[in-house]
Amino acid sequence: MEYLFTSERLGYRLLQIEDLAACRLFWGDEEVMAYCGGSTSEELLPHVIAFYDQSQKDNRLSVYAVVELETNNLIGAAGFNIEQSSENPELIFHLMKDAWNKGYATEASISCLNYAYGTNLVQKVTASSSIHNKEAIAVLGKIGFQYTGIKYFEDTEQEEAFFELVF
Q1: Residues 6+ apart with CB under 8 A from 130
Q2: Model confidence at 62: pLDDT above 90
Q3: What is the rounded distance in angstroms from the CA atom of residue 78 to the CA atom of residue 71?
Q4: Which H helix or E strand runs over 163?
Q5: How far apart are CA 64 and CA 83, in angstroms?
Q6: Which of 130-144 are b and which e, b meaning 16 or more Cβ less than 10 Å from the residue's Cβ?
Q7: pLDDT at 1
Q8: Does the pTM exceed 0.85?
């Protein structure tokens, strides 16, 4: 398996259509996506994968498949949504329930930030989380993001805690 980058326990690569079944276990799971506006329908998942593939081609940054190196299993996705430019991407991480509480969200986030820093494209990274998702807020604080306030997001139709990390 060829990875774009790795960390101690995880490998990161582009998502592929063959990952569809695994993607259902995080993006298609209501509990995993409860704080993110709900799960993604099965019909949309191939489009999500294609979108992130195109993001890598266009921006040199994307959301990546997160693979547990020990088992070679895809356990989630982490990386960057690019709204307007790759200078100011949004960090996201979604892991299937079996991967929760193992430190993978922290490890994946740090690895993605290091990768982005190495591109010399990024100046600032943003992140947001439902105010009820204490685990995600804790991860963002642990890895150095600064809380900047509450912001309303149209896509999730909720107010979320908003964070920034300046490189």
Answers
A1: 35, 36, 136, 156, 158, 160, 161
A2: yes
A3: 18
A4: strand 158-166
A5: 16
A6: beebeebbebbeebe
A7: 77
A8: yes
